[in-house]
């Protein structure tokens, strides 16, 4: 049975990919994920804010001593020659060691929301052995005066800048909260993305009603969350040759199958692997193979995109018909509850 798949121009042994998360923070964790059977591993993210803080600290150090005697300047090394490796240096080194430790592609992850020198790190990641870069654009405009056009333009500018900085295959992980997610997806591909990861999950705060405070909250995804990315993957699959990666809502092998039927090239998971351990990827793959055997499929390519929206139909009408059908079904199921 052939489980191989193509993603970002890379040939993967199977379509189950470990997405960025706590399990890929160490070389030992990366080895465990590879041993568990995943087709590729996305490293945990290097955050723009981490790099910016370090650059600012170095700049302040140099500025504080720029009036010193020339003889004394040598005691304050430039940021590129700091005594200890910085956060970006440590991340690049981790990617290098991870890539050397496993026989599956290692994908570096950069999380940012603006342009800046931190993008140049993309060049170093290629030299370190990363097979590709996943650009996680986590942009939440707090300024209520910022328009949707400005948000979209900032996304496109970031992708364009990273594309110029590296020749590595580039995937963009984006939010579903655009007025037209499908159009935005196609524009990101035009700007230089080789693939899309659908979708980013915004970390939303929780309200503590006793302490009367707002606190950060992180929750693992649920199976229900897979419906939104599947909808857009099914809509995009027939309209682009770029790679489509699914993420969120993967708990069982049937969820992997659903995403592949919608047209995903790979199916990413963090929550299920955190819940059940890195070896759970093997269970997802066994379930996928069992389903393929029951339906007489010899390869993933034979059924990938089988349920994607055809390119020659009125997509708006299809979406509207699905909406109406769902409401009619809901009336049948729940309509008599209050009678």
UniProtKB/TrEMBL annotation:
Entries under Gene3D superfamilies matching the protein: Aldolase class I (3.20.20.70)
InterPro entries per UniProt: Aldolase_TIM (IPR013785), DHO_dehydrogenase (IPR050074), Dihydroorotate_DH_1_2 (IPR012135), Dihydroorotate_DH_cat (IPR005720)
Cofactor annotation: FMN
Protein origin, superkingdom: Bacteria
Keywords: Flavoprotein, FMN, Oxidoreductase, Pyrimidine biosynthesis
SUPFAM superfamilies, per database record: FMN-linked oxidoreductases
Gene Ontology terms describing biological process: 'de novo' pyrimidine nucleobase biosynthetic process; 'de novo' UMP biosynthetic process
Domain Dihydroorotate dehydrogenase catalytic: 96-292
Pfam families per UniProt: DHO_dh
Pathway participation: Pyrimidine metabolism; UMP biosynthesis via de novo pathway
GO molecular function: dihydroorotate dehydrogenase activity
Any GO CC annotation of this UniProt entry: cytoplasm
NCBIfam families the record matches: PRK07565.1
Annotated protein name in UniProt: Dihydroorotate dehydrogenase family protein
């Amino acid at each position: 049975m052939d489980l191989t798949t193509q993603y970002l121009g890379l040939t993967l042994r199977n379509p189950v990919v470990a997405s960025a998360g706590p399990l890929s923070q160490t070389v030992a964790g990366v080895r465990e994920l590879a041993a568990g059977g995943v087709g590729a591993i996305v490293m945990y993210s290097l955050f723009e804010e981490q790099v910016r803080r370090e650059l600012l600290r170095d700049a302040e150090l140099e500025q504080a001593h720029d009036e010193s005697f020339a003889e004394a300047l040598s005691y304050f090394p430039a940021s590129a020659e700091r005594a200890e490796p910085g956060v970006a240096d440590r991340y690049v080194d981790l990617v290098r060691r991870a890539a050397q430790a496993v026989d599956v592609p290692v994908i570096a992850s950069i999380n940012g929301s603006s342009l800046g020198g931190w993008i140049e790190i993309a060049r170093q990641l290629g030299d370190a052995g990363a097979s590709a870069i996943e650009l996680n654009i986590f942009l939440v405009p707090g300024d209520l005066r910022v328009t949707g056009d400005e948000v979209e333009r900032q996304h496109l500018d970031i992708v364009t800048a990273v594309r110029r900085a590296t020749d590595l295959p580039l995937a963009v992980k984006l939010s579903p909260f655009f007025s037209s997610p499908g159009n935005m997806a196609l524009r990101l591909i035009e700007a230089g993305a080789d693939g899309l990861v659908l979708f980013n999950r915004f970390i939303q705060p929780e309200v503590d009603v006793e302490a009367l405070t707002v606190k950060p909250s992180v929750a693992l995804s649920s199976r229900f969350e897979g419906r939104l990315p599947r909808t857009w993957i099914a809509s995009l699959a027939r309209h682009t040759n770029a790679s489509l990666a699914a993420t969120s809502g993967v708990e069982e092998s049937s969820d992997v199958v659903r995403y592949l039927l919608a047209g995903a090239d790979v199916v990413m998971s963090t929550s299920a692997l955190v819940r059940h351990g890195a070896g759970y990827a093997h269970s997802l793959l066994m379930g996928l193979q069992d389903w393929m055997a029951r339906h007489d499929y010899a390869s993933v390519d034979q059924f990938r995109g089988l349920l994607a929206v055809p390119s020659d139909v009125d997509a708006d009408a299809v979406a509207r018909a699905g909406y109406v059908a769902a409401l009619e079904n809901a009336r049948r199921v729940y309509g008599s509850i209050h009678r």
